[in-house]
Amino acid sequence: MPNFRDPSLSVMEPNVLSNSLLNSYIPVLVMGVAAIALAAALIGLNGILGPSRPNPQKLSPYECGVTPIGSARERFPIKFYLIAMLFIVFDIETVFMYPWAVTYIHSGGMMIFNLIEMLLFVGILFVGYYYVWKRGAFEWE
Amino acid sequence: MPESLAGFLSIPVLLFLIFALGAVSTAVSCVLTPNPVRSALFLVLNLFCVAILYLLLNAYFLAVVQVIVYAGAIMVLFLFVIMLLNLGSPERIPDQMKWQQPVAVGAGILLAAMLTVTIASSVPSFAPATSLPQTARRTTLDAREPGASQTMDNSAILDDIARRPETMGTPYGIGKNLYNPDKPWLFPFEMVSFLLLVAVIGSVSLAGRQTSEEKA
Fold it and tell me: In angstroms, what is the C-alpha Rg of chain B?
């Protein structure tokens, strides 16, 4: 495909070059400002407009309609920590795969080499995956 | 001088000032809040501000990774650890390392001194930001005629993305440099997989889950 032009590359035209990549993040900024403004407006209007007539029943923590028993600050099982840790590790693996996937189609004569280097990376991590699977860390009981 | 001040306060500089202030204030709040959960949530805000600072430095991929990995995954881990240790109220944690406070003050002064010396020696003069880009951005693509880009093929543009400092931080630029055997970063990349392997095995064995054979 000699004349194919990736539409995402159009920002690379020299006349719009200098700050165009940063400018393409302006919608994200607008979105963030809108989200903060909406949250602030909803909570603020609630505080201003809503009537406040508290009683002990209303002020007690809501726990599915049942009277709360004991403190919510109890020690959590270590299972949660384990799941979060495994999530981070495989999250980082995905982070490394993303730029590889973006560049792979353009690697030209290096395609086999690039495939092998990623297979090596994933293969080493697969050893860990197999170990975790065999230790039963994915089981929730 | 109003003109030089107006030139200095371009939109990226203004954004930098806003989010640098945000990063510092959320970091201070994170340290000073007695409630550990609130402290962790201030750290999330701080990581968001730092992500925007990465964006302003043209490190686009790093900014997104900062939000996904740090503000997402690692903060979940922090919150789980807080709940795991049951750090509900601050008075339950007695300070058993009183000697830390004077040492921390000394280390802080040392760090501030080192930062001051480093910054003072690396910035030759306080020049307005507008004088920098014209010289810094001169690369092959700028040198071409405005109409010449139509005749350029894809590969020349792609090579330029991987080489130019302001587009090197995109996923394409990072991938092109990281997975290139001519660059020195391929071996560290492969070593990262061993680091992650150690993290997986270490966390699973520390958490003490048993195999089904051991349980039986």
Answer: 24
